[in-house]
Amino acid sequence: MNWRRLWCCCICKEKDLIRENKSKDCPWELYSLKEILHATNNFHNDKKIGEGGFGSVYWGRTTNVVLQIAVKRLKALTAKAEMEFAVEVEILGRVRHKNLLGLRGFYVSRDERLIVYDYMPNHSLVTHLHGQLAADCLLDWPRRMSIAIGSAEGLAYLHHEANPHIIHRDIKASNVLLDANFQAKVADFGFAKLIPDGVTHMTTRVKGTLGYLAPEYATWGKVSESCDVYSFGILLLEIISAKKPLEKLPGGMKRDIVQWVTPYVRKGAFDRIADPRLKGKFDRAQLKLAVMLALRCTDSNPENRPTMSEVVEWLKGGVEKRRKEVTDIQRMPQEDGDNGTDTHFEGSKMPQSDLKRERVATN
Ligand SMILES: Nc1ncnc2c1ncn2[C@@H]1O[C@H](COP(=O)(O)OP(=O)(O)OP(=O)(O)O)[C@@H](O)[C@H]1O
């Protein structure tokens, strides 16, 4: 997709009214300001969903085709904000995947930059883990696993299937949105980086969010797909435990979620890691598997981290294996004692060979 051409195209069409682009290689619409203003009631405060570093986000409903949309409105036309806007539209224009937030269109004029997305009625993961919806306990264990798998699939697509490959660089709970069915949609591509073919590592200025940053990236600016893997590992621990990635301890010290989880793993006290709001209703084998995987993802050596497609296989394998075992157990007469499905890990890291063995076994 040629961003420069699209950009010019938008500016040229600035004065036009509704202009739907129905061509095959351009699946989004060039919205008119009039339509966006109508959909959001002139960016009325009542329609405001929230505010981020980039600007405000408004809910809207289009009338041309009845559709709920979310409109991001750039708050200041600084060079930095312009760059984020351009990267977001460029990247979202290139990708289509069930676990990436869909771009509906955008609008550019001399003093306005707007991005139109699909509206996500179940808000962001952070709202459910730590925010206004946390008390409603809408995320049971299967939903949490499905959100983890969906986010991992979205990332695996960016790393392995998009051309050129894309590193997100800001994976975190507020950037995972949830649709009407609680399907995860990875959002916010303003910091993303396109990786030219053959390039494995780059050094860049550090962008992202404290608590989710891989150490080699935070310290040296070394960026590769494995930085997203690290952030995903933190996110996975957050999904399981509803703990924040960084916690302030009395006395002003900070503890990260990996430091918090490690003693429990050493003691084999996996149940203590689960979010208390789950009230013990979770699959113990899946929980262990997910925690051990998260620790592999957050290994301080990027070379020891799995790839995102390995993460997907591992998570899906665990869920599928468990589902099959439950079905088998339901079919078979019950025996006393351990049903043999409990995965036992010792130490804080899952051995590489275990991960590989499991992968082969689930193929
Ligand atoms: N497509 C969408 N559907 C529903 N809510 C959305 C959508 N896009 C963004 N939001 C919500 O709008 C608010 C602002 O989002 P935004 O992405 O601008 O910032 P953020 O991710 O919260 O913070 P930051 O910009 O620092 O990353 C958030 O509460 C987010 O959940």
Automatic annotation (TrEMBL):
Keywords: ATP-binding, Kinase, Nucleotide-binding, Serine/threonine-protein kinase, Transferase
Record's protein name: Protein kinase domain-containing protein
Domain Protein kinase stretches: 43-315
Residue span of region Disordered: 323-363
Classification lineage: Eukaryota, Viridiplantae, Streptophyta, Embryophyta, Tracheophyta
Sequence similarity: Belongs to the protein kinase superfamily.
The UniProt record lists the keyword Kinase: yes
Biased composition (Basic and acidic residues): 354-363
Highest taxon above the source species: Eukaryota
PROSITE patterns linked to this entry: PROTEIN_KINASE_ATP, PROTEIN_KINASE_DOM, PROTEIN_KINASE_ST
InterPro entries: CR_Ser/Thr_kinase, Kinase-like_dom_sf, Prot_kinase_dom, Protein_kinase_ATP_BS, Ser/Thr_kinase_AS
Keyword Transferase assigned: yes
Coiled coil stretches, renumbered: none
Residues noted as binding ATP in the record, renumbered to the chain: K72
Transmembrane segments: none
Native source species: Hibiscus sabdariffa
